[in-house]
């Protein structure tokens, strides 16, 4: 399995300063930009300026910087950027300031971890988050259609009767669009569930493979330690035999020299008798 340098990103929560925003209720999300990758958290409606996401993202490393932007997403108007920050890609965990026009508007709690990620698993995770973003977009469309439907229904009571047919046709068309979008949402949910199950299976396989590699490493270390001990024993035995051989040769030379000096016969029988005393002397020397 191929591997690539990746980023594990955790986005926990945001604390917006009370004097930085005068809205009573906001629909907030974080947009993450890294190279040509853009990912967003889910949108959260809060009234206390303290949204919590606790979401995890897996990104392929493309450059040395990553940007976080906090957005307020009104129901009908264009999205409003509230603040942002740009960070270097290094392992960190804690709070960072969100700025707008060089003024602090709040803080973002996150963690960034540089990891070596399996490429295949990253592709699965990337697809997972893309599908999740698509479902979020579809949900927003459904919400827009609902609001539009309610608005049209309210206006219907105020308009003249001669526009009744036009309004009915509009409502039917909007209802068809709503049902179609709802069907797409359900289909995306089913696909997302299948992808999530596949990711969990792949994760279990990776855990089992890591455990097997750890056991193999322990076994190799154990065998290596045993071989080192055996080699040391053989080396000590070789040194001992070499020392005994040197002592034996030295004793043999001394015996021959003493025989010549004392005028003793040097026949094979005499040499055998002379050498008969060598083992005892060698053994005593070793002891």
Write up this protein.
The chain has four helices and nine strands, in the order βββββββββαααα. Residues 278-287 have low confidence and may be disordered. It is an alpha+beta fold and 287 residues long. A hairpin with a 2-residue loop joins β8 and β9 (103-118). 53% of the residues lie in helices and 28% in strands. α1 packs antiparallel against α2 (164-261) and α2 packs across α4. It has a single domain (3-210), classed as Immunoglobulin-like (Sandwich). The two termini are 62 Å apart. It has helices spanning 119-156, 164-261, 268-275, 278-286; strands at 3-16, 26-34, 37-40, 44-46, 52-60, 65-72, 80-88, 92-100, 103-118. The strands form two sheets. Strands 2, 3, 4, 6 and 7 form a five-stranded antiparallel sheet that branches. Strands 5-1-9-8 form a four-stranded antiparallel sheet.
Short description:
This protein has 287 residues and is α+β, with helices and mostly antiparallel strands.
Uncertain ranges: 278-287
The rounded Rg comes to 41 Å
Name the shape in a single word: elongated
The CATH architecture assignment turns out to be Sandwich
Name of the CATH class: Mainly Beta
In the CATH scheme, what's the topology name? Answer: Immunoglobulin-like
How far is the first residue's CA from the last residue's CA?
62 Å
**Pairing-aware structural class of the strands and helices?**
alpha+beta
Biggest beta sheet attributes: 5 strands, antiparallel
Number of separate structural domains: 1
Question: Roughly what percent helix?
Answer: 40-55%
CATH homolog superfamily: C2 domain
Order of helices and strands: EEEEEEEEEHHHH
- Please report the number of helical segments: 4
Strand fraction equals 25-35%
Mean of residue pLDDT values: 80
